[in-house]
Amino acid sequence: MNAALTPRNDTSQDELARLAEVCQDVLRRCRSAGASEAEVAASIDTGLDVGVRLGEVETITRTRDRGVSLTVLFGKRKGSASTADLDPESIARTVEHACAIARHTEEDPCNGLADPALYAREFPDLDLWHPWAIDAEQAIELGLRIEAAGRGHDPRISNSEGAAVQVGESVLANANSAGFAGVERSTRHLLSCALIAEDAQGMQQNYWYDAVRSATDFTDPETIGRRAAERTVARLDARRLSTRQCPVLFVPEVARGLIGHFLSAVSGGALYRRASFLVDHLGRPVFPGFVQMTERPRLPRGHGSSVFDAEGVATRDADLVRDGVLQRYILGSYSARKLGLATTANAGGIHNLVVTPGADDFAALLRRMGTGLVVTEVMGQGVSLITGDYSRGASGFWVENGEIAYPVEEITIASNLREMFAGIVAIGRDVDPRSHLLTGSILLERMTIAGE
């Protein structure tokens, strides 16, 4: 990278101190208004987003978003409000609104702050702060290089959806009236490219990207453009399939969506509403015995790393699935109380779920599958967490004798999540590191393919 990797003037520590004071001011205002409990989060997010297309600058966007969100309790009555302004008058009105809401809501015995004994007290550095001092001109140059590498990679690349360079910084302070106070700062940067290829059969579009905490971890930028071109050209001359049943291999970026459905089904909100096909599955097998999933919330530079959750509860490594058996749910304090359980430090979501990979790389998984479908993209919303029914549009590649034969499109893949999870044959070692859900490709024993 030609741009500097450290900021010319890093003010993040000053901003953290300011946000921490804003939080304490909000708590004082809440106490003065008669609230019995309160929690508040204040944040500042800044970014640069540059888009280029066909060798020209298309967009340059700078952002600086500020916000305060708070929840107050009057006994077991709760009210929440937020503002995008750190001005004291705006904050005062936001406190008034939250208190007014709380006074007019029904009591809920499950309302309340998290147990203070669980709050984070130590705050190790997770190596999440890596400002990238790239300016707009440098970002434009970088985007043009990425797109040019993709457009020049193959003569069948006929058009471009553009390349993007995104730079992001976030600082956050969180506090509550029970004594928790914590601050975090993090960065996230992204390079991407989307291209269009054309032949006598028509046009196809595809993309590639890289997302990192530190710009030093980016792959070679030109590689992103070339990979986008390779993926786009590979989709040319796509065919439809006749209706059949066969093995299905989800590539990592699609496989993590499959894991995401599982996480939604074992999350507190779906469970206490009894709107999940995995209600009452704690301690029961959901996957084959070789499947292991562990939450690792404090991975250095992890995309989901955090020392504390949205309630200030200290995060910790914990198994979610061991030997195929569901070990726990994903709970914040409210959902835990609704279920008669304890919080799992997941208020706000999961932190770095690691799906233990197997020994096979992608090529070995193809050989293991023999004949079947590789899914590289899914479309539509045909997933029911209540029943587990799964039906989505898809595209990818047909595989014969362990090798990719030709691209396919305009098909539907269907099954039930319960059967899909139980029917996992293998998990690849081709783990995609660009997400907080870390999994390789997932090979399923069988799904129904609906085509021509």
UniProtKB/TrEMBL annotation:
Write out the GO MF terms: metallopeptidase activity
This protein is called: Zn-dependent protease-like protein
- What are its GO cellular component terms? cytosol
SUPFAM superfamilies reported for this sequence: Putative modulator of DNA gyrase, PmbA/TldD
User: What PANTHER family does this protein map onto?
Assistant: METALLOPROTEASE PMBA
Residues of the Metalloprotease TldD/E central domain:
130-236
UniProt keyword list: Hydrolase, Protease
Domain of life, per UniProt, equals Bacteria
Entry's Gene Ontology BP terms: proteolysis
Query: In this protein, which residues make up the domain named Metalloprotease TldD/E C-terminal?
Result: 243-451
Family listed: Belongs to the peptidase U62 family.
The source organism is Dokdonella koreensis DS-123
Query: Which taxonomic lineage is given here?
Result: Bacteria, Pseudomonadati, Pseudomonadota, Gammaproteobacteria, Lysobacterales
Record flagged with keyword Transit peptide: no
InterPro entries given in the database record: Metalloprtase-TldD/E_C, Metalloprtase-TldD/E_cen_dom, Metalloprtase-TldD/E_N, PmbA, TldD/PmbA_N, TldD/PmbA_sf
Q: Where in this chain does the record put each Metalloprotease TldD/E N-terminal domain?
A: 38-102
